[in-house]
Amino acid sequence: MAAEWYFLRVQVGREDRIRKSLDTRLKQAGLDGFVPQIIVPTENISEVRDGKRRIRKRKLYPGYLMVQMELNDEVWFTLRETPGFGDFVGGRGTPTPMTTDEVESILGRMDESKEQPKMSVQFHKGDRVKIKQGPFENIDGVVEEVNPDKGTLEVAVTIFGRSTPVSLGYWEVEPI
Fold it and tell me: Which CATH class is domain 4-119?
């Protein structure tokens, strides 16, 4: 039987601790050969705070772990007896393995964010903002367009009674 990928429900906020606990319990039981990988699906996010660029990890699916395993009764019992373990995702009582496309999509998204972290932009079209720096400092405007790939915003600013679009980095504005 080949190892397949499954989603496990776990306590939210304790995914890393439960992953380590599962790993330890499987090794103690001598079942780690049946479970090659236990992953907390995350992606890297790039943020600018206080003028400095920081990269942090964000969980793709809070409260879930991805486990590659050969499912048998011993592995099933060891997983279920681990504190913090909720249940398998799937039909009543029987876990449903993930499709190959689902697994490749999630793992690809994780790898892609390691190479090129996504920009964290918390602004939306129509938000009112105040410009913090540059030639338009202390002027209010309205977000017209958000470009999360570039980390820029198009902000409509009223100058001399006319609305003028200005392209700004998201770190140059703050919400009102």
Answer: alpha beta
